[in-house]
Design goal:
Strand content: under 5%
Radius of gyration: 18 Å
Structural class: mainly alpha
Number of strands: 0
Number of helices: 2
Distance between the termini: 37 Å
Helix content: over 70%
Shape: rod-shaped
Order of helices and strands: HH
């Protein structure tokens, strides 16, 4: 996975599974937090790419 938040998402899912297996609510909660952090990083990365794409598109219109 090349996502910026992929590692956080994978780590979060692993913590959730481990927490569930051991009956550890704290670990499950940490896993949910890590997964959410990963999703947020991905969303921010996608937003930045979209903004850059719009800037590039506008530059190309000026040249045409």
């Amino acid at each position: 996975m090349g996502d910026k938040g992929a590692m956080d998402k994978m780590k979060g899912k692993a913590k959730q599974k481990a927490g569930k297996a051991m009956g550890d609510e704290r670990l499950k909660s940490e896993g949910r937090t890590d997964e959410a952090k990963g999703k947020a990083k991905n969303a921010m990365g996608n937003a930045k790419e979209n903004v850059q794409g719009m800037k590039d598109s506008l530059k190309n219109k000026d040249r045409a």
